[in-house]
Amino acid sequence: MASRDLPTILRAYRRINGFNQTTLADLLGYDKSYVSMLETGRRAITDLASRRHIAARLGLPAHVLGVTDTDDAEYRAMVQFGDSTVRLAEIARKAGHAVEAVNELWPLVARLETRAAEGRMDRDSLILLAQARAALGVSLGTVLPEERLSSAARWTGQAVRVAAHLEDPAFYAHTLRMHGNELRKAGHVGAAVARLEHSLALSVEPADQGSTLAFLCRATGELGDGDRFDAVLQHYRQLLDRNTFSGLLFQPFTLREIELRGLLGTGRVAEAGRLVNVMVGSPSAPQWRIIERVTTGEVLVAVGESDAAAEAFRDAIQAAGQHRLPHQIQRTIRATIKTGMRELAAEAEAALRRTRRLLHHADLKG
């Protein structure tokens, strides 16, 4: 079918089904002699109606025989500009507009998924499908509440399965990195570490390596593995010292938050307390400021600075509500309950209800 050559397709169809030319001619409603001429190339069919008839009788997609329609033309245009759609959605997400990113990606993914279900995917379409799945998964992982984060991991996992067959190590590493982090957020930390280590082994560019190391630091810290966390953090720090930082994850602000979180997770409260008041750089996306505020609040509670901790938590609640990030509010709720700040937990729960109503209304409008 990939040849799009009618004689080749007819001969292959007969061999696969064990037909002779008479049987094929009966199926198509043609004379045997006419089928023989088609198979040998002595006769050619150029009119679209006849090609559409043959495709229908053989149960083949019409595009295999060169029959296109308005839908095909629209699809080709979508593929041509699909890469730009994904890039713009990623820019929106990184700028704190994850809901808008999801709204941009859904129609693209839905169209690509339909095309895939029809078996009509070429390499460019497959690449775009993997890119769109990964971007949608990460955007959903930013806006979904914690109890639904597994769906974000499923989307990024589907991107990994496509990327594994595209013979593009850099892109495969990217999908593994995104999937690993979504797995971590969904609570599958061991599986996340495996994906992230695989991504790191495939990554060549310093920014890609740094992004992977940032996620790997988070995962090893959550596992409570102090030695492993220290080794990964040291690798991250050395890489950052040797290269110009860039992006959301490969920069000093992110390094500081990750170190704070890891020290707390591996039981080194005093070290975290010494680092918490040392501010480095600024966040490159709103969600990282919220994450840093929650982490700072937890460290401050651990070292006995409750008033400063409450201020940090309130900053996180306000910013998460402003940017409609429910699972960041849930992170704050969990942290305030754990630290005994019940009034703050109630404030965060009220903010979560407001945010969910806003997201629900946005879904209805969409």
What is the first-to-last residue Cα distance? 39 Å
Whole-number tally of structural domains: 4
Taken in chain order, the helices and strands follow as HHHHHHHHHHHHHHHHHH
Structural class of the helix and strand makeup? mainly alpha
CATH superfamily of the largest domain: Tetratricopeptide repeat domain
Radius of gyration using CA atoms only: 27 Å
Query: In total, how many beta strands?
Result: 0
Shape: elongated
Estimate the mean pLDDT confidence: 88
pLDDT under 50 segments (min length 5)? none
- CATH topology value of the largest domain: Serine Threonine Protein Phosphatase 5, Tetratricopeptide repeat
Taking the sheet with the most strands, its summary is:
none
Mind sketching the topology for me?
Elements: H1 6-17, H2 21-28, H3 32-40, H4 48-58, H5 70-94, H6 98-117, H7 123-143, H8 149-163, H9 169-185, H10 189-202, H11 206-222, H12 226-242, H13 252-265, H14 269-276, H15 286-302, H16 306-322, H17 326-338, H18 342-365
What does this molecule look like?
The protein has 366 residues and is mainly α. The protein folds into four domains: 6-67, lambda repressor-like DNA-binding domains (434 Repressor (Amino-terminal Domain)); 69-204, Alpha Horseshoe (Serine Threonine Protein Phosphatase 5, Tetratricopeptide repeat), CATH 1.25.40.10; 205-282; 285-366, no CATH class. The protein is built from 18 helices and no strands. The relative contact order is 0.06.
